Each structure stands twice: as C-alpha cells, then as structure tokens.
Amino acid sequence: MWNIILLIIITLSGPLSLNAEKLSLSSKNALPTIFLVQYAGNMGLISVGLGRTFNNDRIETFLIYGILPKQINGVGAQTLSLKATGRITQLPISRACNLKTYTGIAIIGNFTNNVHLSFPDYYPSSYYDFPTSLHAAPSIGASITWKQRDYIQTNSSYTLFAEFSTIDYYLISLLNNKSMQFPDIWNFSFGVLWKFR
Amino acid sequence: MFWNKNIQKVIIYCSMVVSMGGCISYNLYDADIISSNLNNKNISRIRSNIFTKDTLKFVIITDTHNNYDDLKDAIRYINQLTDLSFVICCGDVTLLGAKDEFEWYWDLAKKSKFPIITMIGNHDYLGSGKLVFNMLFGLTSFSFQVGEYKFVFFDNTVWENNNISPDFYWLNEQLSGDKNKVLFAHIPIWSDQMEGKYEQRFDSILNNNILMSVFYGHEHSNNDCARNNIIQHTIARINVRQFAIVKLIGSTISLKRISF
Predict the structure, then answer these.
(1) Which residue in A47, A65, A75, A175 has the most chain B C-beta atoms within 10 A of its own C-beta, making it the best mutation to test that interface?
(2) Assigned domain for B16 exists
(3) Residues whose CB is less than 8 angstroms from the CB of residue B5 and which lie 6 or more positions away in sequence, other chains included
(4) Cα–Cα–Cα angle for B75, B79, B80, nearest 5°?
(5) In sequence order, which residues have a C-beta less than 8 Å from that of residue A138 and are 6 or more positions away?
(6) What is the pLDDT of residues A123-165, one digit of tens each?
C-alpha cells in the first residue's frame, strides 16, 4: 500500500521536478496561479484550493482544503488533498472559449471520526495493512474555459469543471467483483477555477 | 460544420455524465444514508413467519467484507434451501466502514428470501461506521426471542470502538433466565481484542449462565472450541465459500458447514 502511495506522490511531484530549473530561477514561479472552489467529490461539502499549471497548461496541480459541517449528515470532516490533473483532449469552441477533458488523481487526507494514518498503540503492529485516513482518488472530468478579454496581458481565465471520481479501495472492489457495475463506484462533483495570472 | 461537430461531442459527453450520475459524495466517511432499522424489521418478519416454536433452522454467514461475488453466490445458494427461519451475518460487512460498502452489502443481502439479521464487526466501526450501522440496521447489541429460544447479539469490538469496554453488564442481563440461549459475537473470546480483563469477564459470564452455543466471525476460518461447558464455533469468512447451517431441536443444537 505504502509503495502505491509513494508512487502516486512521485507522480504528483513530477511536474514540479520537470520545472525545477525554472522554479529556481524566480520565486515568482513558485506562487500559485489558480484558485479552485469545488462542490463534493469526497473532499467535503465545499473545498477550496490553490494550484499551478505546468507544461503549457497540460498539467494542473492543487493543494485543496475541504470541509463537511456535522449538520449536513451527522459527520463532521475536514480534508487536505493533493490533486494533479492531466489534459486528455482540448477542443476550441471559439477564440475565447475551449472545452477540455482530463484525468487526474488526488491524495485525500481525511480528518474525521475514527480514522488513522498510523493506528494507536493498543493495536498490534500491522493489524491493518492500510491507513484509513489517506486515500487515492482517481478522477475523470471535463471543463469549459472562458479567457478574459485581456488574457494576453493578464493570463486570466474562468473555468467550470465537472468530474467523476472514486476511491482506491472501491476500484479494487470493482476489479475483484463481477457483480459490481462500473458506475457503482463513481461520484460526481463540480467546481470553478479562476486562473488569475 | 466545425461548430456542429464540437457541439455534438459536448452533447454526447453531457449525456454520458447525466446517465452515470446523480451520485454525490461529500466524504468517504460521512453518514449520508436513510435511516432504516432493518434488523428490527427482519426480526418482526422472523416472528411472524415461524409456526413451530421448538424446532428452528438458520444459516450463519460472516466477514463478507468486499467479497460481493461470494456474497451474491451464497445468497443464491441459501435461497434454494428449505425450512430456514432466518440468516445471520456475524459482522464485518465492510472493509473501511464506509456508507457505500454498507449499501453494497445490503443490496445483495436483501435478496435473501429469508429474513437476514446483520451484526456489527470491528471493520464496520472504522470511520463513522457505527453511526451508519445504527442508521441502517439499528442497535449494535440486541436480542430477540422466538418460542423457546433467545438469540443474543453482543457487540464486543474494543479497539475500533476507541478502546472502550464492551457492555458486559448488558450481556449478563441478557443471558440470565430460562430460555434456550444462543449467543452471537463478532470477536471470539480467545481472540486478541478480548485478551486480559475482557476475556476473564466474558469467561465468567459464560460460566455463570447456561447457553446452547456461541458463534463468532472475525477469524476468517472455521474453528470449534470446547470452552465454558459448551462448544463455541467460529465461521469462515464468505470468500472461503462456506457458511454454516444450525439446527435447534428442543434443547439440542447441531451445526453443519456447507460449501457453495
């Protein structure tokens, strides 16, 4: 399990390492360029995050904080996630607008009842071979982006996105059980990206 | 022309989204589930179905986790049996205690033509699993009587319940009295979570009360153990593709393991 998590973290950090030279040239390059607001998607009722684009906007990475108030369905939860998406296709609709499909993966850290990254001392070591608070969440989605009129000067744009995501263990269950249907494991979320520079 | 092609692609994609959709999840461990009290409903079904009060036959399955194909096959096999009064699932119906896993379990378990009673297991406690279990199935420790028999379901999870002691006072009360009593608990008395003071307390209660037998899950394998003047049994997890049929005639009890 930990090998998988490590592999995912390395994958996520790929865009950063590719751009390491550029990042070291100017601290400005390390600053976020995208603000994200997302509804649902296992990250909370609402989540907000900051991110950057890499490789000519083909890759986006985000650090996202989400919250689910206890009043909504009886369980309060907070999440901290690292998310990376990679463009699959891009279709220009007009000069100022384009449609994009993408795939991605998030590592979601859950802070809620009775979940653990490492289990308390009263458990024997390796009693559970997985951390219950940390999950990988693959996703597939589409977005539509409107560039601002002064895009060339400001690089500013607005994006609406909608995606389906799932959880690592649900994917394993799907692969191990013929009786599970592909749509069973996916959940829907949507949100807005504001690229501000 | 270019515009039309793109619009077509957008429409196809949107219809795929709509056809797959409707499913929103705020958090893996939330409790977005309709309160159903399924165990009470099934206990009512058991009571209304049973006509002979001194002979009962029931099935025990356990530790279904995410082995949904095996659960589906087990239910299909059980549905071909006759003269069954009910089915007991001895806990661990999930891996993570997530609401989706409880729902997937129940989507298959409810296809049983016999009433099915579900116990909580230690895995079902993870996250907000206990709350989801309470909403979907009801109390985690409960009992019911049919004719001369009393069936007691004892929630004895310790570690996943924040290292809190099981309610042995409740168990002792439930096991007193004259009925022929059968006890179900997820974690065997000899298992790691019971070790020490809980094992002693459990032993003392079982020694001081007369039971027909005790059935457990948790260990994932079959085991028959003579202890506390009775034979206690663990039932193998469902992916071993076995379950147990228990027959009660008067004050005698017999167990037969079935492979499917």
Answers:
(1) A75
(2) no
(3) none
(4) 125
(5) A103, A104, A105, A165, A166, A168, A171
(6) 998 899 889 999 999 999 999 999 987 767 777 899 999 999 9
Number of domains in chain B: 1
Q: Please give the model's pTM, rounded to 2 decimal places.
A: 0.88
Say if A90 is an interface residue toward chain B (CB within 8 Å).
Answer: no
Does residue B23 lie within any of the structural domains?
no
State whether residue A20 sits within 8 Å of chain B by CB. no
**CB distance A42–B31 less than 8 Å?**
no
Name the residue range of residue B129's domain: 28-259
Interface of A with B in 25-54 (CB under 8 A): 40-45
Q: Parallel, antiparallel, or unpaired: how do β-strands B180-185 and B149-154 relate?
A: parallel
* CATH number for the domain that contains residue B181: 3.60.21.10
> What are the tens digits of pLDDT across the range B107-165?
999 999 999 999 999 999 999 999 999 999 999 999 999 988 999 999 999 999 999 99
Q: Is residue B20 in some structural domain?
A: no
What are A72-120's pLDDT values in tens digits? 989 999 999 999 999 999 999 998 899 999 999 999 999 999 999 999 9
Judge whether B137 lies within some domain.
yes
Cα atoms in the 13 Å half-sphere on the side-chain side of A8: 21
